[in-house]
Amino acid sequence: MGIQLTPERIRDLRAELQRGLRNRGEQRWGDTDAWAQSQQRTSKLTREQWIEIKETGDDLNRRLAAGMQGGAAPTSTEAMDLAEEHRLSIQTFYDCPPEMHRGLGEMYVADERFTRTYEDVAPGWRRGCVTPSTPTPTGRRPRGPDDNDG
């Protein structure tokens, strides 16, 4: 027997969860430039823009999962292009240079809350999504056999 919630109670619970997430985020990153940028940029987003961001993010996650499950090597053009698309999507909220993106990738793997989110998209994500698919610390992609100098 499940708990029956009214639409109003569901809205209240979602708002409470969002406040809790925002408070935890502010405690952890509140003194960073990225946090300030995120607050400034997101304060101007409309409901329709939030919906588009969610749909675009869900689509990107599906494509990342498909690449991983399809066996794309982390340094393949496909994986690197998806990683770059992911990095650029973060810039909706704050500037995310390649070095920061690598750090986020490491956090996604190390922090169970982030891992759980991505594991819901594709079981095994932690193993397949470790940071080799993100740009190197210099911001350059690793050279592969398909690369040439000219």
Architecture of one domain, according to CATH? Orthogonal Bundle
Instruction: Please bin the fraction of helical residues.
Output: 55-70%
Roughly what fraction of the amino acids lie in strands? under 5%
CATH C-level class of one domain: Mainly Alpha
CATH superfamily of one domain: Antibiotic binding domain of TipA-like multidrug resistance regulators
Classify the secondary structure makeup into a structural class: mainly alpha
Low-pLDDT residue intervals, each spanning 5 or more residues: 130-140, 142-150
Radius of gyration: 18 Å
- By CATH, the topology of one domain is Globin-like
Which shape, going by the Cα principal axes?
globular
Major sheet, described briefly? none
Q: With helices defined by DSSP (H or I, 4 residues minimum), what is the helix count?
A: 7
Element-by-element helix/strand order: HHHHHHH
Oligomer: single chain
How would you portray this structure in words?
With 150 residues, the protein is mainly α. It has a domain at 46-140: Orthogonal Bundle (Globin-like). It contains 7 helices and no strands. It has helices at 7-29, 33-42, 47-69, 77-90, 98-110, 112-121, 125-128. Helix 3 packs antiparallel against helix 4 and helix 5 packs across helix 6. It is globular and about 45 Å long. The model is unreliable at 130-140 and 142-150 (pLDDT under 50).
Protein traits:
mainly alpha, 65% helix, disordered C terminus, 150 residues, Globin-like, globular
